[in-house]
Specification:
The protein has 585 residues and is an alpha/beta fold. Helices cover 62% and strands 11% of the residues. The strands form 3 sheets. The protein has a 6-stranded mixed sheet with strand order 6-9-10-3-11-12. A 4-stranded antiparallel sheet has the order 2-1-4-5, covered by helices on one side. Helix 18 links the parallel strand 9 and strand 10. Helix 2 packs antiparallel against helix 3 and helix 15 crosses helix 17. The protein is elongated, with a radius of gyration of 36 Å.
Length: 585
């Protein structure tokens, strides 16, 4: 379906508002265009006949009162018409933004791997704002201009059909100009919108990485890169501006001049014949209507740039909406027992470049399984598959004997909790970051969860306790505080399966001791997966899986792997700082 048709579909959701607004507009146009007719009546039927007798001011006064009254009616109708059309336009864009944001929640994580966050933000904010301008300004202007032009042509045909027919030359010129402009502007606008997205992406990346930029003194380089991008945007904006400046107002002036040439030629020729006498009132009405005709013509021509700009933005928005997503399913299931099984699992982020190869293992209810290995060995990929952030390429993953591929992504995660190496905190309070707005997580449960992970010892220095304000990413809190909040968040939801992804790597020794003590209590009854580089934190795990280039090369308990004296033992020796064989037990 074309972009125009889809925009019409969105508009039809609020067709009642649009219909009433258009009806009021039609009456407003009718009232406004009655003015020249009344003026013609006054001139021809009252003022022009004054030479034959005294002027009767009573009918003139009545007509002037009608003229003034119609002006007031027009103003009132235009006021309510404006409110209704603008309200409908804002409603349409409000729905589009909601649909777009809702759709983003359904897109797989894989989609965001290749699309910078700034570009997604540009689609939701900048592009939808351009579409809002389409409905609020462009469509309104086209509707008003179209209605006025229709009314003026009707009036011209009523006054003199031949002259009315002559003025129709305006329409094909406008149509040809619009088609020609769109052919050129569409290409340039696509580039302009793309450059805006690129700038948004770069700004977003720069803000997130400002610490690194300043630490490595790359401010000038980043500034230069942004300037180059901005210069490209400016270059294409200038191309578009030149076309608009050379044609928009100039085009209208040429058409207006041509219309008056036809007008003078037609009525001038008629006045030279004895068969036709043109009244002063007729001349006044025609001049008024032709002058009025070019106000909506100017309005239409001036909106061509904004129209094309908005259509390109709409095309980009619909392209995102057309990305295949999955409906969010909030169906609840019974709490897992927590038996997890990987059977011959293969996985690749890109086609057949496998990062996991024939992975098979089982984690039974209440067990703690640790995943270790060098960077890129596939540890986090295993957890990504368990959470169904991605789907396996080959093989199966099951929980309590049920394949997770047979469940919706949201249902799979219903009884899972995760703590990341770099926990993400949202703007709000500590309480809202633990509960995430879930009505099931009471204030008391938030406090209990924080206490369970030892949070009272770390958070006690905060003036407002769990009501302490948290800004984006929790940048005003220490790493340990953020991590404890993340722990409390996972535990508040009472997961059957708990995943700790490098959860203690960014915290100090004292906080690590607090968390380790809490973990010993909280892991009971839960199946826990720990991804760790610090091997000292996983000595008590029931099973340790050692990964190398996407394969499990060793498996066993801490003591068993040390006795094996393989890859795990070598890693442990290096971290323990011993040259000889580490002590077992």
């Amino acid at each position: 379906m074309g972009t125009g048709k889809r925009l019409v579909q969105y508009a039809m959701v609020y067709k009642k508002l649009l219909t009433v607004g258009m009806i009021l507009l039609a009456f407003a146009v009718m009232a406004d265009l009655m003015g020249p007719m009344i003026a013609k009546n006054i001139i021809d039927n009252h003022i022009a006949v004054a030479n034959e007798g005294a002027i009767n001011f009573r009918p003139i006064a009545a007509l002037l009162a009608l003229f003034f009254g119609l002006g007031i009616v027009t103003a009132i109708l235009r006021y309510f018409q404006y409110l209704l059309l603008q309200k409908a336009a804002n409603r349409i864009v409000q729905k589009m933004r909601n649909d777009l944001y809702e759709h983003i929640q359904t897109l797989p994580i894989r989609y965001f791997d290749n699309l910078p966050a700034g570009k997604v933000v540009a689609r939701i904010t900048n592009d939808t704002e351009a579409i809002r301008n389409l409905y609020v300004t462009v469509v309104s202007q086209f509707a008003i201009s179209g209605m006025y032009m229709l009314g003026i042509f009707i009036a011209l045909f009523y006054l003199d059909p031949k002259m009315g027919a002559i003025t129709l030359f305006v329409l094909p010129i406008l149509y040809i100009w619009m088609k020609s402009y769109r052919k050129f502007a569409s290409k340039v606008n696509h580039i302009i919108r793309g450059k805006v997205s690129d700038m948004n992406a770069m700004i977003n990346e720069s803000i997130n990485g400002m610490t690194i930029i300043q630490a490595f003194r790359r401010e000038k380089q980043m500034d230069q890169e942004f300037n180059e991008l901005n210069d490209e945007h400016y270059k294409y904006q200038t191309k578009l501006l030149k076309v608009e400046a050379a044609t928009s107002h100039n085009l209208v002036d040429v058409i207006r001049s041509l219309a008056f040439v036809f007008f003078i030629w037609y009525f001038g020729g008629a006045s030279l014949t004895t068969e036709s006498v043109v009244s002063v009132g007729m001349l006044y009405a025609f001049v008024d209507y032709i002058t009025r005709l070019f106000n909506p013509v100017t309005g239409v021509v001036n909106q061509f740039a904004r129209l094309e700009h908005s259509l390109v933005a709409a095309e980009r928005v619909f392209k995102l909406l057309d990305k295949k997503g999955e409906p969010v399913n909030d169906d609840k299931i019974a709490r897992y027992r927590g038996n997890v099984r990987f059977e011959n699992v293969w996985f690749a982020y890109n086609e057949e470049d496998y990062v996991l190869k024939d992975i098979s293992f089982e984690a039974k209810q209440g067990e703690t399984v640790a995943l270790v290995g060098h960077t890129g060995s596939g540890k986090s990929s295993i957890m990504n598959l368990l959470f169904r952030f991605y789907d396996v390429s080959k093989g199966e993953i099951s929980i309590d004997g049920k394949k997770i591929s047979d469940m919706s992504r949201q249902t799979v995660r219903d009884h899972m909790g995760i703590v990341l190496q770099d926990p993400y905190l949202f703007s709000g309070t500590i309480e809202s970051n633990v509960s995430l707005g879930d009505a099931r997580i009471t204030r008391e449960k938030v406090q209990q969860s924080l206490n369970a992970v030892g949070g009272e010892r770390v958070l006690k220095h905060l003036r407002n306790g769990i009501d302490e304000e948290v800004i984006e990413k929790g940048s005003t809190l220490s790493s340990g505080q953020r991590q404890l909040i993340s722990f409390a968040r996972a535990l508040a939801f009472d997961p059957a399966i708990l995943i700790l992804d490098e959860a203690t790597s960014n915290i100090d020794t004292e906080t690590e001791e607090i968390i380790q003590h809490a973990m010993d209590v909280l892991k009971r009854g839960r199946t826990t997966f720990i991804i760790a580089h610090r091997l000292s934190t996983i000595k008590n795990a029931d099973r340790i899986l050692v990964l190398e280039r996407g394969e499990i090369v060793e498996s066993g308990s801490h003591d068993e792997l040390l006795k094996l004296d393989g890859q795990y033992a070598q890693m442990y020796k290096l971290q323990a700082g011993t040259n000889g064989k580490p002590k077992v037990g």
